[in-house]
């Protein structure tokens, strides 16, 4: 049994690395495939399969920043890192950007441990209160997001258009709705603009890990914001890393606008939200991520022993994924400037289109084109792209207030 | 580029708004329903063979095996109905969330 668990852990880490590196291949896809083909694993105990799913999910949260930063190809959980990450890449600091997200994810591990205990004891009693309060927090965050812009009228237009696009997407029969929405808004749009601007990626500086430092204030504010916000957003329906990152960056004040602190924050949030989604099943019996659905289906009811094993797997796979992330970031950093970035951007646009055509449907294609155009409009209007988060914020506010 | 992008956004939104309002498919049985994506607007007819109370209203089962989730309290067993709704899913089983319901043989 022990050997089976270790093998499942290692295979999960390999799969998580793969899903993290390839845009559009989400862990949910692998988890759904595993559940569909459960008959083929009849000889394997379900807890072993759970170890595989957890290791894959946690590794994914460490690795998925690499395509976001180096290729500008976003994933569902890492799309907000495209914005500051790509800027650092253009300054020759792509490696540093990845290390900062990895530091965030690594810092998330002790936070997960602390909040696992808090969740187990407090979540059943505070769940309903958070449910009531959260839409108002999101309304405040949205207004703050828009009115903070110098040109708040244009920002308001971008936010509302993105919001309506989100409302359409979540009320139309779009297959894999988040894929075309986020790929268009945050991925293809930036690639199209970079094609027009003929961006040349400079040689990337590969610094020693110990030289990548976040100042004390950035570290503590980032860790505090990630802990408070990610834990609050991990158990509520319709909420995710994106919502948490927006509120978290506002909570950090001026530090939230600093690219390096923001990358640390999104790295931490991504891993906390994923890990706590497993604890949420134990605490209140609700599933809040595709991987958590798979774990819940495999185990039925989660015992305290199961939860302990899951947390241990989170820790081990997190530490291994950190080193894999550093290794991959070095490879990407050494080679990215050797490639013609214009051709690479075109190739990535083609890949993203192909992935959307395969995994989504005709309506998804309309969403992809509209989202890409809205992203281009936002960038060329000089509005911060974070206002495009209206696409997730507005539908969530409507869902909570109207039902 | 900015202006062209804005035009594409408006056109895209227009197409999506049209699809939201006019893309309704008629279904006759559960097999038809199973092939559709979540949120697809559907139109169907059938006779209610059973009903039970759920948290947000009632769950009706039609003679064609389609389940309807309705935020309503009416008793509709043995009645012929016409429904406009949207495809939803519960426990990996497709259902229809009722938007409009018309009782055909109501006296």
Report the biggest beta sheet of chain A as strand number plus sense, adding barrel if it closes.
none
The chain-level structural class of chain B is alpha/beta
Q: How many strands, what sense, and barrel or not for the largest sheet of chain B?
A: 5 strands, mixed, barrel
The radius of gyration of chain A is 20 Å
Q: Which value, in Å, is the CA radius of gyration of chain B?
A: 17 Å
Integer average pLDDT of chain B: 88
Largest interface summary: A-B, 25 and 22 residues
Helix coverage percent of chain A: over 70%
Instruction: Give me the count of strands of chain A.
Output: 0
Which descriptor suits the 3D outline of chain B?
elongated
What count of helical segments of chain A does DSSP give?
16
**H/E element sequence of chain A:** HHHHHHHHHHHHHHHH
Low-confidence stretches of chain A: none
Terminal Cα span of chain A: 45 Å
pLDDT averaged over residues of chain A:
85
What does this structure look like?
The complex is a heterodimer of chains A (403) and B (107). Chain A is mainly alpha-helical. Chain A has helices at 2-21, 27-36, 46-63, 65-70, 79-90, 94-147, 152-171, 178-196, 216-233, 241-251, 259-284, 290-299, 304-335, 341-359, 362-380, 390-402. Chain A is globular and about 55 Å long. The model of chain A has no long low-confidence stretch (mean pLDDT 85). Chain B has 107 residues and is an alpha/beta fold. Chain B has two helices and six strands; from the N terminus they run H-E-H-E-E-E-E-E. Chain B has helices spanning 2-22, 30-34; strands at 24-26, 41-54, 57-62, 67-70, 80-90, 93-103. Chain B has a five-stranded mixed barrel. In chain B, a hairpin with a 2-residue loop joins strand 5 (80-90) and strand 6. The mean pLDDT of chain B is 88. Classes of the chains: A mainly alpha (403), B alpha/beta (107).
In short:
Chain A is mainly α and about 400 residues long. Chain A has 16 helices and no strands.
């Amino acid at each position: 049994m022990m050997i089976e668990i270790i093998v499942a852990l290692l295979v999960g880490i390999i799969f998580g690395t793969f899903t993290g590196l390839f845009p559009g291949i989400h862990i949910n896809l692998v988890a759904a495939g595993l559940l569909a083909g459960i008959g083929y694993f009849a000889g394997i105990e379900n807890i072993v399969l759970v170890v595989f799913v957890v290791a894959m999910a946690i590794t994914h949260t460490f690795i998925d920043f690499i395509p976001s930063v180096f290729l500008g190809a976003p994933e569902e959980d890492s799309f907000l890192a495209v914005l500051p990450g790509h800027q650092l890449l253009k300054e020759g600091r792509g490696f540093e950007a990845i290390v900062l997200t990895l530091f965030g994810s690594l810092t998330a591990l002790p936070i997960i441990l602390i909040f696992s205990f808090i969740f187990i004891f407090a979540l059943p009693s505070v769940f309903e209160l958070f449910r009531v309060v959260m839409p108002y927090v999101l309304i405040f965050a949205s207004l703050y997001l828009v009115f903070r812009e110098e040109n708040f009228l244009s920002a308001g237009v971008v936010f509302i258009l993105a919001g309506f696009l989100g409302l359409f997407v979540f009320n139309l029969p779009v297959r894999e709705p988040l894929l075309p929405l986020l790929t268009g808004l945050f991925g293809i749009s930036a690639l199209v603009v970079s094609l027009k601007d003929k961006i040349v990626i400079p040689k990337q500086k590969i610094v020693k890990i110990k030289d990548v430092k976040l100042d004390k204030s950035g570290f503590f504010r980032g860790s505090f914001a990630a802990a408070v916000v990610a834990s609050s957003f991990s158990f509520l329906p319709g909420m995710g890393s994106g919502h948490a990152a927006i509120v978290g960056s506002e909570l950090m004040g001026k530090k939230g606008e600093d690219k390096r602190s923001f990358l640390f924050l999104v790295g931490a949030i991504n891993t906390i939200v994923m890990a706590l989604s497993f604890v949420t099943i134990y605490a209140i019996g609700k599933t809040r991520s595709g991987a958590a659905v798979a774990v819940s289906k495999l185990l039925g009811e989660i015992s305290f022993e199961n939860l302990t094993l899951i947390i241990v797997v989170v820790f081990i796979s997190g530490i291994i994924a950190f080193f894999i992330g550093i290794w991959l970031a070095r490879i990407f950093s050494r080679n990215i400037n050797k490639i013609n970035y214009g051709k690479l951007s075109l190739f990535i646009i083609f890949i993203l289109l192909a992935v959307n055509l395969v995994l989504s449907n005709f309506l998804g294609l309309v969403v992809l084109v509209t989202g890409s155009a809205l992203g281009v409009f936002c960038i060329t209007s000089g509005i911060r792209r974070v206002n495009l988060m209206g696409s997730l914020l507005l539908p969530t506010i409507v869902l909570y207030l109207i039902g | 580029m900015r202006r062209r992008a804005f035009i594409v956004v408006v056109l895209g939104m227009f197409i999506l708004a049209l699809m939201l309002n006019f893309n309704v498919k008629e279904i006759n049985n559960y097999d038809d329903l199973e092939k559709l994506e979540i949120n697809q607007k559907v139109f169907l007819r059938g006779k209610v063979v059973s009903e039970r109370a759920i948290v947000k209203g009632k769950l009706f089962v039609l003679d064609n095996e389609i389940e309807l989730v309705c935020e309503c309290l009416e008793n509709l067993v043995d009645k012929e109905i016409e429904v406009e709704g949207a495809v939803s899913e519960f426990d990996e089983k497709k259902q229809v969330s009722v938007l409009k319901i018309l009782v055909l043989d109501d006296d």
